[in-house]
Design goal:
heterodimer; A: 272 residues; alpha/beta; 6-stranded mixed β-sheet; 10 strands; B: 290 residues; globular
Chain lengths: 272, 290
């Protein structure tokens, strides 16, 4: 992603997908890296799972792609063919559910309708055609009849369905999902995975952070395994080997031990 | 006494009562919606902090221009904006959270304000700054109040969509638009404006009351944001009317009485409001089938 926004650019005409490249990318908080010197390219139209232990930097990597946090080093490049494009114009991002304020008095229809942002912008109105599109998206995730329900009164699975409806409306080239199926029952998960497959068939680039290895093997042709640094990246069968899984866990443990030593130096009298 | 004597008489008879009514209704129109958003963003105490932060600016204005509306308003706005921006900058560039850095700045600001007021001026002046004078609103003050509530409603209409999204789902807003930060600042500016307007009529301490009490009461009357904003505005206006009438007949200071009326509205809402009110909870009702 370029540092200077191309605000004046008209929305580029959509072609078949967009690719994401990492160039020596380091992301982190307070100078502590959470993603360390990452290189690689996610090709346009990929269906990719990101896996790794807790604290491996998976969510941080998604935030880095979205542009929510600035890289400490290196960069992320979103490209359509060979020409670089701005991330915001092409990308839809579903963060972990906890980022949403459930107590806010907004109904399902309005929440889903925010997916039209790219066409309506700050001030644009929502016409009859847009309303139909919203209704269609709500129907596609099986929430018809819940349009006027407040989001605080939805179950976890229903809220996730609503958020997928919003993703449908966003009509993005790149779709980033952060643990989209955590704490979701199997029926809902199956329905949402159908949508993921549909996006893949439409040649959109789909990247999902997941913990369910069986699911990754079944649905995702490609996998990126990380533990702050890249462990393996490629065909899922080649990446999800016992050796790689063990290596990833070891790398995170090694970091934890490092952190432990620092804590002891700061307060030497603390006995554990 | 006839109902006319009680409800209409004071306003028909005295111009200062009519002015007070217009001023406090104008204030309620703008402050209500702003208060609803503050509450929904879990910033209910932010208004309180800002009201204190405004004090040194108003006091400086008072030192320079005496009891001049222009000087005190300008000073108040300036102090409010400075504290908001400094607190925001510190929160963005350090690990200190915005509410903590705001607390630091407004406390310093308040201490400065009290010092400045006591350097020059009697206690009566301090009382004016703290408690306002809704019964002494001149033309300029009325125009200021009306202008502030007009600007507030227009700006809120303009930034409504990103403001709502910034509350519900900030990370989504960030992924589609850069407007989150600027919209937050514009909203805080609206808060400061309404507090400065309110402090001319009600004083720094009570300006927050007409902003937050109707908003918190509105939560018990409506499920959706639109309804909540309408309810807050109506409650604010009713509190102004009832407060002014009560203060006239009972010989109470009007500013605090208006806020007490809003407080009463809150208690009534808490007890009888259809959306989570206490009485409804106590009535045993059979659960539905689905």
């Amino acid at each position: 992603m370029s540092a200077i926004p191309h605000r004046h650019d008209h929305e580029p005409k959509r072609r078949a997908g967009a690719s994401i490249s990492f160039v020596d990318l380091t992301l982190g908080y307070d100078r502590h890296p959470a993603v360390h010197h990452l290189n690689g390219t996610i090709e346009a139209g990929s269906l990719l799972a990101i896996v790794g232990p807790n604290g491996a930097g998976k969510s941080t990597l998604l935030k880095g792609i979205v542009g929510a946090i600035a890289p400490l080093n290196g960069r992320v490049a979103i490209r359509d063919g060979d020409s670089p494009v701005e991330a915001r114009a092409r990308l839809a991002y579903l963060p972990q559910v906890s980022a949403i304020d459930h107590s806010f008095p907004i109904c399902v229809f309005d929440l889903v309708a925010t997916g039209l942002w790219r066409t309506t912008g700050l001030f644009g109105g929502i016409g009859r055609k847009d309303r139909d599109a919203v209704d269609e998206a709500i129907a596609a995730v099986g929430l018809t009849g819940f349009e006027r329900r407040e989001i605080g009164k939805l179950s976890g699975g229903q809220l996730q369905r609503a958020l997928f409806a919003r993703l449908l409306l966003q009509d993005a080239d790149i779709i980033l999902l952060d643990e989209p199926l955590t704490a979701i029952d199997s029926k809902t998960a199956a329905d949402l995975l159908d949508l993921v497959r549909r996006w893949h068939s439409e040649h959109r680039t789909v990247v999902a952070v997941l913990h369910d290895m069986a699911l990754v093997r079944e649905t995702f042709p490609q996998t990126l395994m990380m533990a702050r640094e890249l462990v393996a990246f490629g065909r899922t069968a080649d990446v999800l080997t016992p050796e790689n899984l063990l290596a990833a866990r070891r790398m995170i443990e090694a970091f934890d031990e490092g952190a432990h030593v620092c804590a002891v130096e700061d307060s030497p009298r603390m006995a554990s | 006494m006839t109902p006319y004597d009680i409800l209409i008489g004071p306003f028909a008879e005295f111009e200062f009562m009519r002015r007070a009514l217009v001023g406090s209704v104008a204030l309620a129109l703008g402050a209500g919606p702003v208060g609803v958003f503050l509450m929904l963003r879990r910033m209910s105490l932010f208004g309180d902090a800002m009201a204190h932060a405004i004090l040194p600016g108003a006091a400086l204005g008072y030192l320079v221009g005496g009891l001049s509306l222009t000087a005190m308003t300008a000073g108040g706005l300036l102090a409010g904006f400075i504290v908001v921006i400094l607190a925001g900058l510190v929160a963005r560039n350090t690990s200190v959270k915005e509410d903590a850095s705001l607390a630091a700045f407004y406390l310093v600001s308040l201490a400065l304000g009290v010092t400045i007021v006591s350097l020059k001026g009697s206690n009566i002046d301090l009382l004016h700054v703290l408690f306002g004078s809704v019964l002494a609103l001149d033309d300029a003050a009325l125009i200021l109040l009306a202008a502030i509530s007009s600007i507030t409603l227009m700006v809120l209409a303009l930034i409504y969509r990103p403001l709502v999204l910034e509350c519900v789902d900030p990370s989504f807003l960030q992924s589609v638009s850069r407007s989150g930060g600027p919209v937050h600042l514009v909203f805080l500016a609206l808060v400061v404006m309404n507090l400065v307007g309110g402090f001319n009529a009600l004083g720094t301490l009570l300006a927050v009351g007409i902003m937050m009490l109707p908003a918190v009461a509105a939560r018990f009357w409506a499920h959706e944001l639109t309804g909540m904003i309408c309810a807050a505005t109506v409650i604010g206006i009713l509190s102004s009317v009832v407060g002014l009438i009560a203060s006239y007949h009972l010989g109470l200071p009007s500013g605090p009485t208006i806020i007490l009326a809003a407080g009463l509205a809150y208690v009534v809402s808490l007890a009888f409001g259809p959306n989570g009110g206490l009485v409804l909870r106590l009535i045993p009702r059979r659960h539905l089938e689905a």
